[in-house]
Backbone:
């Protein structure tokens, strides 16, 4: 039978007893927040001015990353842990939205550039990491990520 528990070491915890977030987590947030950067760049330097529902649709894939980033600062405490535990699923939904939007625009006839291929491959790799990383899963569960269950407080 396969062991599904993550391999964690004492160095994986910070001084407050919280499981530190892996560095690909931060790359995932940056990758998902690119929709905000693209929309703001188009509004500032391009002739494209999405209005109303168009700007909402353009910003939809980045909203889960923004929520998780906001939760990262405050919600990893006793009161906000229920919201924080949903963060991994929000990131998975956001990454799925990015993949869906990319496929939608390609099927609609938008030109395929090198950057669109690079971002599409990065989206696939990031979605795979979000679904398969046991360390990230541990950061969003109470058993491993919350300080009350810290390794120092357990009696072996």
Residues:
């Amino acid at each position: 039978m396969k062991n599904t528990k993550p391999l964690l070491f004492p160095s994986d915890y910070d001084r407050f007893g919280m499981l530190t977030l892996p560095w690909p987590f931060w790359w995932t947030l940056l990758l998902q927040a690119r929709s905000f950067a693209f929309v703001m760049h188009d509004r500032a330097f391009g002739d494209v001015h999405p209005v109303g529902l168009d700007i909402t649709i353009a910003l939809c894939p980045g909203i889960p990353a923004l929520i998780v980033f906001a939760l990262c600062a405050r919600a990893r405490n006793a009161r906000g842990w229920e919201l924080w535990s949903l963060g991994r699923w929000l990131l998975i939904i956001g990454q799925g939205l990015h993949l869906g939007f990319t496929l939608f625009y390609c099927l609609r006839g938008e030109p395929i550039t090198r950057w669109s291929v690079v971002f599409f491959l990065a989206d696939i790799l990031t979605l795979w990491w979000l679904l398969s990383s046991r360390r990230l899963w541990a950061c969003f569960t109470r058993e491993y990520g919350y300080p009350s269950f810290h390794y120092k407080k357990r009696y072996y």
Residues 87-107 form the longest helix (21 residues). Residues 150-156 have pLDDT under 50 and may be disordered.
